[in-house]
Each structure stands twice: as C-alpha cells, then as structure tokens.
Amino acid sequence: MKALVTVAEVATVEDEFEIDGNAIDERYLEYDLNEWDDYAVEEAVQLSEDGLVDEVVAVTIGPERSEETIRMALAKGADRAVRIWDDSFDGLLDVAAKTEVLQAVVEDEQPDLILSGVQTGDAMFGATGVSLAAAIDYPWAAVVNDLEFDGEIASVHRELEGGVEELTDVETPAVLTIQTGINKPRYASLRGIRQAQQKEIAQKTLADLGLDGVESELELTEMYEPEVESDATVFEGSAEETAGELANVLREKGVAQ
Amino acid sequence: MSDVLAITEHRRGELRDVSYELVSAGRELADDLGGDLHLAVISGQVEEFAGSLSREGVDTIHTVSEGEEFNHDIYTQVTERLADELDPSVILMANTVNGLDYGPAVATRLGRPLVTDVIGASFDGETLTATREMYGSKVETRVEVGSEEVAVTIRPGEWPEANGNGNPEITEFDAAIDESAVRSTVTGFEEVGGGDVDISDAEVLVSVGRGIDEEENIELVEELAKALGATLSASRPIVDNGWLPKNRQVGQSGKSVTPEVYIAIGISGAVQHVAGMKGAETIVAINDDPNAPIYDIADYGIVDDLFDVVPALIAEFE
Ligand SMILES: Cc1cc2nc3c(=O)[nH]c(=O)nc-3n(C[C@H](O)[C@H](O)[C@H](O)COP(=O)(O)OP(=O)(O)OC[C@H]3O[C@@H](n4cnc5c(N)ncnc54)[C@H](O)[C@@H]3O)c2cc1C
Ligand SMILES: Nc1ncnc2c1ncn2[C@@H]1O[C@H](COP(=O)(O)O)[C@@H](O)[C@H]1O
C-alpha cells in the first residue's frame, strides 16, 4: 500500500511588506511547509508506522528553493520525494494546472491513498485535492479531521461548519484532503533530518512526465492591500498607557464591575 | 451560453443563508452577461426549498429529489448534467465545506477553469474578473479568466441575501444518477465541542490566538480573563494544538459568539475566525501587526506586543 502526500511550499508575508507589480516583494516573504500539508504528512507517516502503508511518497510542484521544504517532509518520515518544476511556470499556477501535473505523477506512482491539505496558506484555493480526485477518478473526501483506515475503507469525519462533523465511508484508492487538528505533527528530529539527507528527491520536468506544457487559465492582474474600512480607535503609547486607555473603555462598557 | 447556474445548499432540513447570497451574486453575473439565472436544488425537501428560493431575479429552479442530505457524488453528477443541458457561462457554487467537497470536481470534470472563494466578480464581455484574497487576507487580488465557461465559488457573507418575491419556473430535472459512481456513503453526523462551558453565552470573551506562542503562556490570558470576569475562548490553532478544548473554539468550525465585548489577543482575523465573532458588540484587538485583518473589524486596537500589553492590562484590574 503506497501513500502519496501532496506537499506545497507556501510563502508567508512579514508584518510590513511592499507589493511589487502583481506580487509581494520577495524581500518580505518567508517560505515554509504548508500548514495543512504538515498534518497530511503526519497522517501518512502514522499510517506507515501502524503498518497500513508500506511507502510514503511526498510530491511537490515547486522551484529548486522548495527542496528545503520537501526535505522537511522526508525528515518527518516520508520515504522519498518527487519534485516537479518547469521553467515555463511563472506567476500563479491555477488548480487545473496543478491537477494536470499531479495527475501525471499519480499515473507514474499508482498510489492507493493520496493525502493533500485542505488549502494552501498563500493562494488559498482549497481545491487541488478534490480536483485531482476527479481527474484520476478516485473517490474522495474533503476537510477530513479524523481518519480510520482498515486497508480498504477509509472511515472519515468531515468537519462541517458550526461544530458538526459528517461521518463518511470512502472506498480506496481515494484522495483525502486533511484538515488541521487531525493529529499532532511531529517536529523533525536531528536523526530524521540526517536521514533525510540520504533520501531520494527525484526531479522531474513536464517532459519527463510526458506533458507538453501546462498553462493556467487564471491570470493574476492586480494585487493590492485591501482598503481598510476600519474605524478602529488605535491607542498609542507605551504598553502601560495603551492598557490604561483600554481599561477605561472596558470599565465604561461595564466590564469587571 | 450567457446563463448562470447556481447550486444552492441546505443542511438537516434547512436552506443555508448562502443559498440566498448565491441568488444575488448569480443575478449580478447574469445581468452582466445578459442571460438567465437558473438555480438547482438538490436533495432534501426540494419543493419547499424551491418555494423559499423563489426570489426576485430567479428565472428557473431545477429540483432534483434524490436522497436527503448532501452527497458530493450526487451533487457532482447533477451539476454536470445540468451544465450539459443548460450550457451556462458560469456555474456558481458556495465556498463552504460542502462546496470544497464537490465544486473542484465539477470544474475538473467539465474542464472549466475554477476560481474559488471570490468576494467580488463581474463580466466584461467574455472576461470574468474576480476579486479574491491571498496570504491569509493580507492582500486582495484580481484574477481574470478569459474563458466563456467558468466555475466560481463565492465566499459566504459577501453578497446580500436576495429577498424580493419572484416568480420563477420550477421544474423537476431528471438527473439519471449513475448509482455505481456514488462511492461515498454518509453514515451520520456528530456534534462536537460540548462540555461544561458554553462560550456563546458569555458577555465578555478574552480570546487567544497563535500569537501566544507557547502552551505555558495560556496562563497569562487566563489571568486576564479572571481579572475581567470574562470567559476564555480561542482561535483554531490553539485548539488544534490541544492547549484548550474544542468547546472554546470561535469560528466557522467552532462556535458563533455575540458577546458585548470580544478581546482578540494574538489573533490575525482569518475569515473563518471572523465568521464566528463578527456579531460581537465591541471588538478589541491586541496584535503587533498593524496590517492584521482583525483591525478591519476592530473597534479598539493596541498595536503592540501582547506580552507587554496583557500584563499591563491585568495590572489595571487588580
Ligand atoms: C475549513 C476551515 C475552517 C476553519 N475554521 C476555523 C475556526 O472555526 N476558527 C478559527 O479561528 N480558525 C479556523 N480556520 C483557520 C483559519 O484559517 C486561520 O488559520 C486561524 O484562524 C488562524 O488563527 P490565529 O489568528 O490564532 O493565528 P495566525 O493567523 O497565525 O495569527 C497570529 C497573530 O498573532 C499576532 N502575533 C504574534 N505574536 C504576537 C505578539 N507577541 N503580540 C501580539 N500579536 C502577536 C500576529 O501578528 C498574527 O496576526 C479554519 C480554516 C479552514 C480552512
Ligand atoms: N505546488 C504544489 N505542490 C504540491 N501539492 C500542492 C501544490 N499546491 C497545492 N498542493 C496540494 O493541494 C492542497 C490544496 O491546495 P490549494 O488548492 O492550492 O489551496 C495543498 O494543501 C497541497 O496538498
């Protein structure tokens, strides 16, 4: 039984930043393993530790920089990784484009279980996992925060709105999009980090996957800081001063009396 | 070809508010395109739902009586078949948890570009321009899709609910469901987050987010809550980490709260968090990032390190 985990490297923005054209100026970006994918990796590694999965393969679509991120997945216990990049990729890769690439990887790898995250923290599409499932015609479940797997049926909880969970059985092979909180992602141990250096990261281009070219139909044409409609009163001064002013407001509102 | 097909949502016998928002958004887009607005009502009490959805601006409602609750295989199949029949320019869905579970499948099966979680959309000729956020709502973007056929999901709460009465044609659609392609089974529902405290009753909430950094620092906000006679609540990461129980979580997947005062400490104000607390009378934010989206809805703010401000605030009330 092989598990494939789709892993994205995402950019987070510093508190103060500048926009350069249609993108955030590189100087204000930091790169990290997507929060949701961290939980997906952990879930796959736990299935492997429980003997339900023999091999955990992590796949990412990302430039060379993202090797560091995919190494994190290896350090946490994934067995090997595949990284796809093509010089033709620039700007925003839309869901259809990512799906096409990941579909080709699935055809190569033939996994029995695919775990993705619910969403990426930067692009926030929330769609790639389910889109992939439709493309490869696997059953799926989205926003999974509990998984029991007997090797054939994945019994999952789908986290709905308002503290309600839906219990669903899905036949495998399947794609599950993993929600935060499903487990406690481990920190990579020093030993894990060392071992990750020895693990394979296969690099592939579109041509290697037998794809001619992949294009996004979504074009990002503008990026700007949202107009703040805020009329918040922001207190200025030292912590003592601002806390004092806030305390006055709270007392006026009848708090702590 | 210039029509809009909007797929409505319901749960446990009730239409969800976003269904009426889909009517407003769908009508706007249909006006841009000079076409009709079709609604689909799938599963459950379809006739009753169609009656409630007969609002101004709706041209046709297609009902499909198939099962009670949402099943993504059924929703995907029905939407696909309706799209084949109606050939709409836009398939409009909600960016809800169920929308996330079938919307991308619809788009991919039909080979349509997908734009998710949009907060604004319009057509200029054949080009759809959508507004959506990125990077945890720190920036807004415009995306253009130069395709005559698109799939779009809208963020709940961004369009008004349609309310004037209308007189749409209501027709039953025979979706000829392929049962062999229904490969997931919903076996039940479970309520989570019960227990001793009900944060939705509280008049004052001190709410803590990821800015608190370490589990042992939770004590600090606990102390503040005590000094203020307030109840302690949290954003999702705090609950995911197991630092506070699920019944303390505010937001889309937690509790909706409407206290008189809500003090958000080290919380960025992600849309799923705000969904659960925007009804608070007075919102106070303590966050050292002046660009944090929580400031868009806050009434009072302190842009400073919470580890300086919270102790000072406790001192004020001791
Ligand atoms: C389907 C779905 C459902 C979800 N449901 C919910 C939900 O019900 N509730 C919920 O809360 N989230 C929910 N989320 C998660 C949501 O998207 C955010 O990830 C989450 O709300 C972020 O929590 P946060 O604000 O505590 O953390 P962050 O976004 O990491 O924000 C931390 C903030 O703390 C500030 N900070 C850091 N250090 C300090 C300091 N020393 N002093 C002052 N400020 C500091 C930072 O500037 C930052 O703004 C959901 C997500 C999805 C996809
Ligand atoms: N560049 C990428 N490489 C690998 N997996 C990705 C990539 N982008 C998205 N994914 C996967 O798809 C999920 C949803 O992403 P998105 O639809 O972009 O919000 C992520 O949590 C990842 O598991």
Question: Any overview of this molecule?
Answer:
The complex is a heterodimer of chains A (257) and B (318). Chain A has helices at residues 35-49, 67-75, 95-109, 128-136, 190-198, 239-252, and strands spanning 2-6, 9-13, 19-20, 23-24, 29-33, 55-61, 80-84, 113-117, 140-149, 153-159, 164-171, 174-178, 201-204, 218-224, 233-234. With 257 residues, chain A is of the alpha/beta class. Chain A has a single domain, classed as HUPs (Rossmann fold, 3-Layer(aba) Sandwich). In chain A, strands 11-10-9-12-8-1-6-7-13 form a nine-stranded mixed beta sheet, sandwiched between helices. In chain A, a hairpin with a 2-residue loop joins strand 3 (19-20) and strand 4. Chain A starts with a strand and ends in a 5-residue tail after the last helix. The model of chain A has no long low-confidence stretch (mean pLDDT 96). Chain B has 318 residues and is α/β, with parallel strands linked by helices. Chain B has two domains: 4-181, HUPs (Rossmann fold, 3-Layer(aba) Sandwich); 199-317, 3-Layer(aba) Sandwich (Rossmann fold). Helices cover 26% and strands 28% of the residues of chain B. Chain B has eight helices and 18 strands. Chain B has a seven-stranded parallel beta sheet with strand order 7-11-6-1-4-5-12, sandwiched between helices. A five-stranded parallel beta sheet of chain B has the order 15-14-16-17-18. A three-stranded antiparallel beta sheet of chain B has the order 8-9-10. Chain B is elongated and about 70 Å long. The relative contact order of chain B is 0.12. The mean pLDDT of chain B is 96. Classes of the chains: A alpha/beta (257), B alpha/beta (318). At the A-B interface, strand 2, helix 3, helix 4, strand 9 and strand 10 of A face helix 4, strand 7, strand 9, strand 10 and strand 13 of B. Strand 11 (164-171) of chain A pairs antiparallel with strand 13 of chain B, so a sheet runs across the interface. The complex binds flavin-adenine dinucleotide (FAD) and adenosine monophosphate. Adenosine monophosphate is lined by residues 6-8, 34, 36-37, 59-62, 95, 98, 116-117, 119-120, 123-129 of chain A.
